[in-house]
Amino acid sequence: MEQSSLEEMLAIVQPLVMWMSRTGIGYTEFATALKPLFWKMALMELERLERKPSDSAVSLLSGLHRKEVRTYREELNMDALQVQQLREHWGKPSAASQVVTRWLSLGLGDAIAYSGAEPSFEQLAQSVSKDFHPRSVLMEMVRLGVAQDLGSQVRLLKESFSPDARNKEASQMLAVSVADHLSAGIHNLLNPEGRKFLEQSVFADGLSADSIERLNDMARELWSQALKQIVQAATQMVKDDEGCDAPHRFRLGLFTFAADPSGQAASSSQAAGEPS
Fold first, then answer.
1. Could you identify which of 18, 82, 191, 230 might form a hypothetical disulfide with 78, taking C-beta atoms 3.0 to 4.6 angstroms apart as the criterion?
2. Over the stretch 156-170, which tens digit does the pLDDT of each residue have?
């Protein structure tokens, strides 16, 4: 039997609990919301093990009462494949986010024409998705505060897609990014002999506030270089792989964090690693 990882999991959950405390989500509300999630993940695990997802099996694996399992099965009526598809939907960036990322990767500057020959905003938006009208994508970007509609031109207002923290989009982006980061690390732990995802970090302590700021500047510059190369390569691969069997999704992320010895996050925006 594998050794319990509860202590490590509690360390991971601690900043999440802090977030919940500051946004008015208490233990009872969170615990109630967790139950159907345990049910969904148990379905996926049984599917992986090629076992029949009986109420008893789901109850044993999830820790939920059989009555609760039966209720979720009857009310939500999902199988393991639908659960996986739902999670993949959660992880897909919005069209607005993809437009900003591609804009930055192509080095299009601060402003581009709305329509006309390349590069134009219409062409850029349609290269990301033909499911949304470019005007609708622009309106969403304006609403999020990352673009300005100048009529014949569109101006990018920020160096990265970081919408107002008060906006729902910001918390959704954090959720899917952290979930994929955790998934990569957990995959590596649970599959020691298999192919591993890139999941590394650099740590240094005893640093002054000035050094933290300089390291954050360096990290942003490195990210800018990586962003352009990865997005350009991925854009071409998406075109080449169109219509392929069993399509996959890919995410590359980078973060910085600075704190004092007590664990309190650095107070300045630069030291905290926020976009300038």
1. 82
2. 986 555 555 566 667
Residues 117 and 142 in one domain: yes
Least confident of 43-52, 78-87, 179-188: 78-87
Which pLDDT does position 217 carry in this prediction?
A: 93
Those residues whose C-beta lies under 8 Å from the C-beta of residue 137, and which sit 6 or more positions away, are 95, 96, 99, 125, 128
- My answer on whether 86 and 100 are in the same domain is no
Mean pLDDT calculated for residue range 211-230: 91
Assigned domain for 186 exists: no
> Could you tell me which residues are beta bridge partners of residue 149?
154
Domain check: are 100 and 119 in the same one? yes
Q: What is the dihedral of CA 7, 8, 11, 13, to 10 degrees?
A: -100
- Distance CA(217)–CA(107), nearest Å, equals 19
Asked which of 156, 187, 205 is the last residue of a domain, the reply is 156
pTM: 0.67
Tell me which residue range forms the domain holding 13.
Answer: 6-90
- pLDDT given at position 1: 40
Among 41, 60, 90, residue at a domain's last position: 90
Average pLDDT over residues 204-224: 92
Pairwise CA distance, residues 148 & 34, whole Å = 39
Look at the chain and report how many structural domains it folds into: 2
Task: Decide: residue 69, CB within 10 A, 0-12 exposed, 13-18 middle, 19+ buried.
Answer: buried
Residue 15 belongs to a domain: yes
Q: What are 16-71's pLDDT values in tens digits?
A: 998 888 888 889 988 888 888 898 889 888 988 999 989 999 999 999 999 999 88
**Structural contact between residues 189 and 220, judged by C-beta atoms closer than 8 angstroms:** no
